[in-house]
Design brief:
Helices cover 17% and strands 43% of the residues. The longest helix is centred in the C-terminal third of the chain and has 19 residues, at 203-221. It is elongated and about 75 Å long. It has helices at residues 161-169, 179-186, 191-199, 203-221, 288-294; strands at 3-8, 11-16, 21-22, 27-28, 35-39, 44-48, 53-61, 76-87, 93-108, 112-114, 122-127, 130-135, 137-141, 144-149, 152-155, 227-229, 238-246, 249-252, 259-262, 267-274, 277-282.
């Protein structure tokens, strides 16, 4: 067997590498040893955790039909806030978030085919005719790179409903294999944040929240000083609103073809006071359902 020599705190450690099988054609996961080599020249390997099944977590935005898909072979479904990293042309990056639903499938390994392509933290595979990409961890190994396919893995999100149906066909329902997924993913969900993000895709809810925002804004402008309730985890629980900051809105003037920009758009933030201190609170930081209850808004 090959070994990797590492130096740790001045000590030399020799790590044994499992024998590898060179794979140049699609291969069933059930036929893979603990290590396969996709490209010997580049020393690109995939290390595979032993097992009979692969737990595959598939995520979908709440606006996607697959998020509402029900099937007896789905071992678990739960709310999840999906985070997305975006890159700007100047090299900068920023993050966005979206409410989603994750479905958990337990799939026999003889139903999964590994596609021998170098992905560097993205392993390409096929399940019942559906092309998927497993998002995994990886690192330097024997002068090249190794991806690690553990017993639980995630696919890239938002597969088509037709794809999900085909994957469900070859899955089995067995909750024993999803316990650690539930513990790690479900317990970490911020319900308030998820509900706020999900409301952006619920047309009825969006209309209700829009009406509540405007009613509270009007109360502030009429000097009625309503109380607004913050989302869970915010420094302030509740505060009196004393000013509203609106978005710019384009309006037509009396002069033909001439438009003007005025502060009459939707509220974007509120100035609140607590113990003689003033704070600016964004509309995204407010729990609008509780605020409506607090001010007896129907």
């Amino acid at each position: 067997m090959d070994t990797i020599t590492q130096v740790l705190n001045g000590s030399i450690l020799n790590e044994t590498i499992a024998p590898s099988k060179i794979v140049t054609a699609p291969i069933l996961l059930s036929n893979c040893p603990s290590r396969i080599t996709i490209d010997e020249k580049e020393k690109y390997d995939i290390e595979i955790e032993a097992g009979d099944y692969l737990v595959v977590v598939m995520g979908f935005g709440v606006d996607k039909a697959a998020s509402r898909f029900k099937h007896p072979n789905i071992s678990a479904s739960y709310k999840k806030v999906h985070e997305f990293k975006h890159y700007r042309k100047n090299g900068g990056k920023f993050w966005t978030s979206k409410a989603g639903i994750d479905h958990v499938f337990v799939i026999p390994r003889d139903k999964i085919t590994i596609i021998p392509e170098m992905g560097y933290s993205y392993i390409k595979a096929e399940i019942n005719g559906v092309k998927v990409v497993f998002s995994v961890s990886g690192g330097s190994c024997r002068g090249g790179w190794a991806d690690y396919l553990n017993n639980t893995t995630h696919t890239c999100i938002n597969h088509k409903l037709e794809d999900v149906k085909k994957i469900a066909e070859v899955s089995v329902r067995d909750s024993r294999y999803v316990d650690r997924v539930i513990v790690n993913d479900v317990n970490g969900v911020d319900e308030n944040r998820w509900n706020e993000l999900a409301a952006k895709f619920d047309n009825k809810k969006k209309k209700e929240v829009k009406e509540i925002k405007e009613k509270i804004a009007k109360m502030v402008e009429d000097k009625k000083q309503p109380y607004i309730v913050m989302n869970k985890g915010f420094t302030i629980d509740k505060a009196m609103a004393i000013n509203v900051n609106r978005k710019w809105q384009k309006v037509k003037t009396d002069r033909e073809g001439v438009w003007d920009m005025v502060w009459t758009g939707m509220p974007k933030s509120f100035t609140v006071t607590v113990n003689n201190y003033r704070y600016k609170v964004k509309v995204s930081q407010i729990d609008w359902d509780k605020t409506a209850q607090e001010n007896k808004i129907a």
